[in-house]
Amino acid sequence: MWLLSRQAVFGSFIVCLCMLGIGLIQFPKLQKLLDSQQVTSLEILEKDVKAENLRLNFLKKMPSFGYDNLIADWVYLNFLQYFGDDEVRAKTGYNLSPEYFEVIIERDPRFLEAYLGLSTSTSLYAAMPERTINLIEKGLKSLSPQVQEKSYYVWRYKAIDELLFLGNSQAAQESFLMAAKWASQFSDEESKYVAATSLKTAEFLSQNPNSKYAQIATWAMILSNQVDKYTRQRAINAIEALGGKIVTTPEGAQKVIFPPKD
């Protein structure tokens, strides 16, 4: 009986050893197959990006037959899908962001809702703030307080890029002044607030071009918008690095605490 038991144990050991040997032999082949699939997948994704780039270039030039706004809306929905695919963007990057932006500016420069997401994606994710500013300047040629309500926000987006991503405080000061000028033409509370804060930031920049207070205030403007988690955390980190603090009020809102004025 003991002999049979020992034979059974020995037989099981031999089976396990054989399975382990087969596994060790097959592992390099399996790893090679997985690596091949990953490479193929990346190649396919890159081909998709190139195809999308060609499509966007075509949309920049094709006749609209009077449907410019419809094309801009459709392209913006495509951009949201593109931007929201974190897994794919981690592999291929965000280099198409300004291409979406350009199509929309060409087709509908008064599409205010598109400016925030596209400027953030182009400047912060694709690291192309110069391209953002060029496209915003192009869009501003078709905007005015009389033409489009709340178009003063576009000047604010431009100022944010100039100050935080290009370090051009002089240009940012001028953009904040324009935002204040346009916002002051409206009497609602939101416009009054934008006019006051934009003017205040411009004044800080005129007194101290390297003002940490002004930079914190600008990052706080980003926090006040409906931005994604990455952008929100980037803003919080920047505010804390500049000496500010983020506190949560009893109501659950986040408030920026400024350091002593510089």
TrEMBL record:
Keywords: Membrane, Transmembrane, Transmembrane helix. It comes from Nostoc minutum NIES-26. This is Uncharacterized protein. The chain crosses the membrane at residues 6-27. It comes from the Bacteria.
